[in-house]
Structure formats: structure tokens, C-alpha cells
Amino acid sequence: MVTQQDPPSRTALVRRARRVNRELAALYPDAHTELNFSTPLELLVATILSAQTTDRRVNMVTPVLFARYRTAADYAAADREEMEKILQSTGFFRAKTASLIGLGQALCDRYGGEVPRKLRDLVTLPGVGRKTANVVLGNAFGVPGLTVDTHFARLARRLGWTSQTEPEKIESEVGKLFPRSEWTMLSHRLIWHGRRVCHARTPACGACVVARLCPSFGLGPVDEKAARKLVREGPFS
């Protein structure tokens, strides 16, 4: 059972949060985005497609997509029906097709066909919000950013780093707990842990390496043997 506790001091919260990050870094030394890509444009497209579907599904579709559309101009000039057929299995394929064609047009019109390297520019593109922008900045350009997806948000709240529910507010509060240089890798670690251990419905508390640091310990089974059965093995790509 989760018990109510007095909130930790700011100093204690920062220390505990950074300890969690170190523990997850040891557990997931090779954490990375599980979307396959070779260029900033491919990562941008793959991240847009990952909405409301799995990285595994996206990675099944993108080899065909990337072979057919190699540049922003290719996306801008795409035949809508042809692209919809390629994207159909990803869900919301009509909207995603519209976003990718609009993306190609915007990149050509405003950025010479290149993916911009600034968040303020990325979020003006069709289909791109802060989450997608931070994925691209952190993984294609080496610019630190927090990727607040459903896993990140869930774990940040369970770990007591924030009580916010809006992604931008979560990003702001969590970012203040860590050095900026850690933001991208922290995102990967939380997402990997959320996919493998700290599940939405029944977290594997008894098999969690940061259980002793988690104020939500007890939401799932605390018996290690029972919890181990809930742990999912990656990769999820």
C-alpha cells in the first residue's frame, strides 16, 4: 500500500531524483530511442508517426517510406493516396499523411528543405509538438531535451518529481531537478523503465531497482517473484 508522507525538502528531492537517474543509468547503459533512423528528417518523420502506435509498428513501416521519400521535397510532392497506403497500419493514417506532406512543404518553404535545429522552429511544423521536437533535438542534433511522453509523465509523477499533468509543466518541473546535459538520457531511461517495469496498470514494484527511492512503491505487487512475472523484456523496436 502506498502511504502518505510529508513532501521532501527541495534538496532531498533533487538528491533522490539524481540517485534514481544514476540507478537507471546502471540498469540501462545502452538506453536510446527505439525508433530506427539515419537522418534528422527520418527521425522527425518516425516520431510523428509514433503517435497513437508503437515504435515497433513504426519501424515496420519506415523502411518502405524512407526508400520512397528521401527528402523534404519528396514528402511535399507525395501522392496522398500512395502515402496513405504505406501508413495505413500506423493508425490515423490520413491525418499523418497530411502532416508529412505539410511537413515537407514547410521545410522546403521555410528552411531550405532541412530540419531546423531550434525548438522554436520545430514546433511550428505540421505534426510537431514539444515532445517530437525534443526527440529530434536530443537524438539527431545532440541538443538536450526532455521527451515527456506517457511513460515519462507517469514515472515522473510516481517518483514524486512533479504533480503536474500537462506535458510542458512536467518538462519544466523535472528539468529543474537535473543538469541540462542529462535531459536526453534521462528521458530514454524513464521511457525504457516505463515500458519494461513501471507499467501503467500494474507496475512491477517488487522487481524495481529504484523501489526504495519511490514514494509510490506498492502500487503493484511487492513480492519479487510475483513482480518478476510482470517485467517485459525489450527491445521494443
The DSSP helix count reads 12
The CATH class name of the largest domain reads Mainly Alpha
> How much beta, percentage-wise?
under 5%
CATH topology of the largest domain: Endonuclease Iii, domain 2
Q: Helix- and strand-based class?
A: mainly alpha
**Secondary-structure arrangement, i.e. CATH architecture of the largest domain:** Orthogonal Bundle
Shape verdict = globular
The whole-angstrom Rg is 19 Å
Count of distinct structural domains: 2
Describe this structure in words.
The chain has 237 residues and is mainly α. It folds into two domains: 10-30 and 146-228, Helix-hairpin-Helix base-excision DNA repair enzymes (C-terminal) (Endonuclease Iii, domain 2, Orthogonal Bundle); 40-140, Hypothetical protein, domain 2 (Endonuclease III, domain 1, Orthogonal Bundle). It has helices spanning 10-27, 40-49, 55-68, 72-76, 80-87, 93-111, 119-122, 130-140, 150-158, 167-175, 183-196, 224-228. Helix 2 packs antiparallel against helix 8, helix 5 packs across helix 6 and helix 9 (150-158) packs across helix 11. The two termini are 34 Å apart. The mean pLDDT is 95.
Sum up the structure in keywords.
237 residues, mainly alpha, Endonuclease Iii, domain 2, Endonuclease III, domain 1, 2 domains
Topology:
Elements: H1 10-27, H2 40-49, H3 55-68, H4 72-76, H5 80-87, H6 93-111, H7 119-122, H8 130-140, H9 150-158, H10 167-175, H11 183-196, H12 224-228
Summarize the structure.
This protein has 237 residues and is mainly α.
